[in-house]
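Summary of Year 1 activities. Much of the first year was spent building the evaluation harness for sequence design. The harness presents a backbone, in tokenized form, and records the residue chosen at every position. We chose the following record to illustrate the format because it has been used consistently in internal testing since the harness was completed.
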């Protein structure tokens, strides 16, 4: 166990002005507070906070952070109190220790809603002072190093939590070395066989290749010196988790990996970075598409470097990172390189240069807490932001937008502004019209084309990659659905007032909202459209003296033909198909990408038609089911990627076959409305395969119609014709 003077010496190496008395007091206090407590390994418990402090000295952190590390378990595990720590060590250190105490027992792999709430607490705890996060990461690193002493039933949970939350947080804070060690330790616990296999193969390759790393280091350094560039060259093999991740990502075996070696070239200036890059590219052949300039466009965590891959000595594919020593410090320590405070007592001073961009990301994440996201949406947004690497794109005016890998112009639009995303109808990538579903690449210039008449389709949620875009699409979709219900409810209310001979005004409904327990007239109309409020209740709220007709009076009026036939909820109707419509069925499904004689069918509750982007889902023993890509039912297969098949329509073989689709029609409940709807479908050559009718209210009913059409254009033409009918209020296609 590290002695008191050894800890002081570790700090003094990088901070000659350290407050030795403060460190000594904290060491003695923590050792006495933990007393005879033991860890699961049998070591004195005090060895843990001492090792955490040692890790933080490697990051060259200030005295207050080192002291907080020594004390971080005292409030939770001993009789110490915040008041006592504040009296002995000051307010700032006491606040840091209290923040660490609050997040110590957060369970970040529990049920999703609870996990989201705990992640909120973690981020809120580190929002005011990033040093809380630095101590927490060091605490987790030491716990992972000693994971073998933890009870077996807890090891996987701790390792998974590390891989899900703490390693990505370290990466976002720019602390790459800590991230890699956390990932490897978690990987070794969660996938011991894979870890052992990779480390064995790397060891065998090392013996086979001999001192290849040293040879490349020497040759590269000599070449740079011949060109007048003084450089330090460091080479190393890739880490096991990084190798495993690449094998998984690219679906390749170990033998197919060609870039197991990475080299860092450290020079004295930015100018020398680009000179060294020129030397490397002149000496060895570059691998196309592998050059990245993070000096001119730094990553959000402040990382700056030039990346390139060349076919170097021995025909080895070699990854190189070229940067200055200052950039190396940021790359190694990340946000910790900025966390240098002037006042050793713990009062935070000014950052040396500017607030870390990584810390700015953290603050931005905290701001999202005030946007009213549900726990699940917040968790999704934060995890997406944590896990994805970045691509950098530009607006036409040169504004830099950082996005996750695989991001689309939809994500770009919402990153610019929510209103831009909500009104996006198209885009140009590098001056060329492109689909909104295109995958963006580094350096793309993206121009979003907007229209005020546009509202984002709900299917965008499955296309968007960023949590911000997905959440915005959900909000817009909810608002659009609410507006549709409100529009329907307004029509229902107007007809109800007309039927009873009472004048209808929106102001009158607005004044009656307190009696209806709603905040606005719009809320009342939406509730009527959803069937939550009866129109009689609204009329009575606006006209308290009005008396609704008795049931027998309603029956007499219906029998006399006055009013409309009221359908009961759940009625199933069968009717004769109009002349001209055909019941021709599909004999064979023309799909490419399916091998063998497996039975193929369309998804229930909506089917698919040519023109839809489609996917096949394999069900062992049953065959293949074809879904449109926007089908909500596909969410049920997200955890089984092996069942997904890449399929597409075989247009050449379509002939005149028909395909299933489902639409929902909301129409006025009056004589002849059903005939008009069936006629519109028949006139366009569509075939009605099934129909259900549900009473929405006394004035409107809803029809769920299964139709057979030739393709998506045919279906859209039928929908357009239906919308043009006076009796029809709304038409929409459904999938699943």
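For this record, the design step produced the sequence shown next.
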């Amino acid at each position: 166990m590290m002695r008191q003077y050894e800890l002081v010496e570790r700090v003094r190496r990088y901070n000659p002005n350290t407050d030795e008395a403060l460190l000594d007091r904290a060491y003695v206090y923590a050792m006495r507070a933990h007393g005879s407590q033991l860890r699961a390994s049998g070591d004195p418990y005090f060895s843990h906070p001492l090792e955490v402090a040692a890790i933080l000295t490697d990051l060259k952190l200030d005295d207050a952070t080192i002291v907080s590390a020594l004390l971080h378990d005292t409030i939770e595990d001993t009789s110490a109190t915040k008041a006592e720590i504040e009296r002995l060590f000051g307010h700032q250190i006491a606040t840091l220790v209290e923040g660490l105490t609050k997040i110590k027992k957060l369970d970040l792999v529990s049920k999703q809603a609870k996990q989201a709430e705990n992640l909120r607490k973690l981020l809120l705890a580190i929002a005011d002072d990033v040093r809380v996060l630095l101590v927490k990461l060091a605490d987790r690193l030491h716990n992972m190093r000693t994971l073998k002493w933890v009870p077996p039933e807890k090891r996987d949970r701790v390792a998974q939590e590390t891989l899900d939350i703490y390693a990505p947080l370290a990466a976002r804070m720019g602390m790459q070395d800590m991230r890699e060690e956390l990932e490897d330790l978690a990987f070794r616990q969660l996938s011991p066989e894979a870890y052992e296999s990779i480390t064995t193969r790397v060891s065998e390759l090392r013996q086979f290749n001999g001192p290849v790393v040293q040879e490349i280091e020497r040759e590269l350094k000599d070449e740079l010196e011949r060109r007048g560039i003084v450089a330090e060259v460091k080479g190393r093999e890739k880490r096991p988790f990084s190798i495993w991740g690449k094998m998984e990502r690219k679906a390749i075996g170990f033998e197919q990996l060609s870039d197991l070696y990475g080299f860092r070239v450290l020079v004295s200036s930015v100018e020398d970075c680009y000179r060294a890059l020129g030397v490397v590219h002149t000496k060895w052949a570059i691998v196309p598409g592998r050059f990245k300039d993070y000096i001119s466009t730094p990553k959000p965590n402040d990382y700056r470097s030039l990346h390139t891959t060349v076919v170097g000595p021995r025909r080895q594919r070699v990854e190189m990172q070229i940067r200055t020593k200052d950039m190396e410090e940021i790359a190694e320590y990340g946000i910790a390189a900025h966390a240098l405070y002037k006042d050793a007592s713990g009062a935070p001073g000014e950052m040396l240069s500017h607030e870390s961009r990584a810390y700015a990301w953290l603050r931005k994440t905290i701001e999202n807490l005030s946007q009213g996201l549900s726990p699940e949406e917040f968790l999704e947004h934060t995890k997406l932001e944590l896990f994805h690497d970045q691509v950098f794109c530009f607006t036409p005016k040169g504004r830099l937008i950082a996005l996750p890998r695989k991001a689309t112009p939809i994500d770009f639009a919402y990153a610019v502004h929510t209103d831009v995303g909500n009104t996006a109808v198209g885009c140009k990538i590098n001056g060329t019209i492109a689909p909104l579903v295109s995958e963006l690449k580094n350096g793309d210039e993206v121009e979003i084309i907007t229209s005020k008449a546009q509202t984002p389709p709900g299917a965008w949620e499955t296309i968007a990659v960023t949590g911000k875009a997905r959440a915005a699409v959900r909000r817009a979709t909810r608002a659009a659905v609410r507006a549709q219900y409100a529009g329907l409810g307004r029509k229902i209310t107007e007809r109800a007032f007309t039927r009873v001979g009472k004048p209808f005004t929106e102001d009158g409904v607005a004044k009656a909202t307190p009696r209806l327990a709603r905040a606005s007239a719009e809320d009342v109309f939406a509730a009527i459209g959803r069937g939550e409020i009866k129109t009689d209740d609204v009329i009575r709220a606006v006209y308290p003296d009005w008396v609704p007709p008795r049931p027998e009076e309603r029956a007499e009026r219906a029998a006399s033909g006055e009013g409309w036939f009221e359908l009961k909820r759940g009625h199933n109707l069968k009717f004769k198909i109009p002349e001209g419509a055909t019941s021709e069925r599909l004999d064979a499904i023309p799909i490419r990408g399916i091998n063998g004689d497996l039975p193929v069918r369309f998804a229930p509750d909506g089917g698919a038609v040519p023109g839809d982007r489609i996917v096949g889902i394999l069900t062992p023993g049953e065959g293949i089911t074809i879904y449109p890509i926007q089908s909500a039912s596909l969410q049920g297969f997200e955890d089984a990627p092996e069942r997904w098949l890449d399929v597409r329509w075989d247009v050449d073989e379509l002939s005149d076959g028909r395909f299933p689709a489902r639409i929902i029609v909301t129409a006025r409940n009056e004589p002849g409305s059903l005939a008009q709807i069936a006629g519109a479908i028949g006139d366009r050559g569509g075939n009605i395969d099934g129909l259900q009718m549900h009473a929405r209210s006394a004035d409107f009913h809803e029809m769920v119609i299964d139709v057979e059409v030739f393709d998506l254009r045919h279906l859209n033409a039928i929908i357009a014709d239906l919308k043009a009918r006076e009796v029809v209020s709304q038409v929409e296609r459904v999938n699943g």
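The first strand starts at residue 232 and ends at 237. Quantitative recovery figures across the full test set are reported in Table 2.
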